[in-house]
């Protein structure tokens, strides 16, 4: 076995937590000794490790993972865990801890859940070890800006985790991938309806064939993408007709991405059985 020099270094954030919505507590690195072990124990913060080399085991209450170079594991607050380095090829890893009111939301948005706390990076050169090293360097500087620097690197780490965890989901769950794609379509239409966008533009943006997207969208929602987008625009126009009496019908039509006022009026009547003017008069009388 090749002789390894044991090492351990950690640096803490010079800026105190003070209730920040998201806060990195510390960052560190270690070349562990053979059979170096921690736990079973629980932590009151999120603790993320990235393995640069070596082998070892990470255990949660439900699972045991054999992890090596390129693997990353996240310990959740209150989770009983233990981990141990291999006796012949012990881990060299880096780690960072974080906390805050938004921490759980950010973790879940990245794809980390109780059964997805581990992934292996698909990138040839992961940014995670470099980001953790940059956190350490910032903390060593003792500058007030270290807090913002650490948050920037934490977001980069979570972004890479999201890329990896979403690719794992694509490989293991076709249904969840379809649902995620439909959610992306709904998000796209919800944020772009005020512009004269088309379904073709949405398909190009998402990188899928129109026929495929139309098929899965109709199956999941019961509506075609064209009908959903039009309904979204009409629903928003109803709100504007009620709340913005100073706007003309033409201005409202334009505000929901329909530049042809006559087409807008025709579609409005189709969904509401009233013209826009009649709808405004009717709802205005009840205010």
Automatic annotation (TrEMBL):
The name this protein goes by in its record: AraC family transcriptional regulator
InterPro entries in UniProt: AraC-bd (IPR003313), Homeodomain-like_sf (IPR009057), HTH-like (IPR037923), HTH_AraC (IPR018060), HTH_AraC-typ_CS (IPR018062)
Organism, as annotated: Paenibacillus crassostreae
GO molecular function: DNA-binding transcription factor activity; sequence-specific DNA binding
Lyase as UniProt keyword: no
Gene3D superfamilies attached to this UniProt entry: Homeodomain-like, Regulatory protein AraC
Keywords: DNA-binding, Transcription, Transcription regulation
Residues covered by the HTH araC/xylS-type domain: 183-282
Matches recorded under SUPFAM superfamilies: Homeodomain-like (SSF46689), Regulatory protein AraC (SSF51215)
Keyword Lipid metabolism part of the UniProt annotation: no
């Amino acid at each position: 076995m090749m002789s390894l020099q044991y090492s351990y270094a950690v640096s803490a954030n010079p800026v105190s937590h003070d209730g920040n919505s998201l806060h990195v507590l510390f960052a560190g690195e270690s070349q562990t000794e053979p059979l170096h072990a921690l736990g079973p124990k629980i932590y009151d913060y999120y603790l993320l490790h990235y393995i640069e080399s070596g082998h070892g085991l990470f255990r949660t209450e439900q699972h045991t993972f054999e992890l090596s170079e390129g693997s990353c594991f996240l310990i959740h607050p209150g989770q009983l865990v233990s981990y141990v380095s291999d006796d012949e090829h012990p881990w060299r890893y880096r780690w960072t801890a974080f906390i805050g009111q938004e921490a759980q939301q950010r973790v879940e948005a990245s794809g980390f859940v109780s059964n997805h706390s581990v992934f292996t990076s698909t990138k040839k050169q992961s940014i995670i070890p470099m980001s953790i090293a940059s956190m350490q360097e910032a903390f060593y500087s003792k500058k007030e800006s270290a807090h913002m620097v650490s948050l920037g690197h934490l977001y980069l780490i979570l972004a890479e985790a999201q890329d990896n965890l979403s690719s794992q989901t694509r490989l293991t769950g076709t249904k969840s991938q379809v649902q995620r794609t439909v959610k992306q379509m709904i998000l796209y239409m919800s944020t772009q309806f005020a512009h004269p966008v088309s379904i073709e533009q949405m398909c190009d943006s998402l990188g899928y064939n129109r026929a495929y997207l139309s098929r899965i969208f109709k199956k999941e929602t019961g509506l075609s993408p064209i009908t959903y987008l039009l309904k979204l625009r009409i629903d928003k126009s109803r709100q504007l007709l009620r709340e913005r009496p100073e706007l003309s019908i033409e201005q409202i039509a334009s505000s929901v991405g329909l530049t042809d006022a006559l087409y807008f009026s025709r579609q409005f009547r189709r969904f509401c059985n009233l013209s826009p003017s009649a709808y405004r008069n009717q709802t205005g009388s009840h205010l």
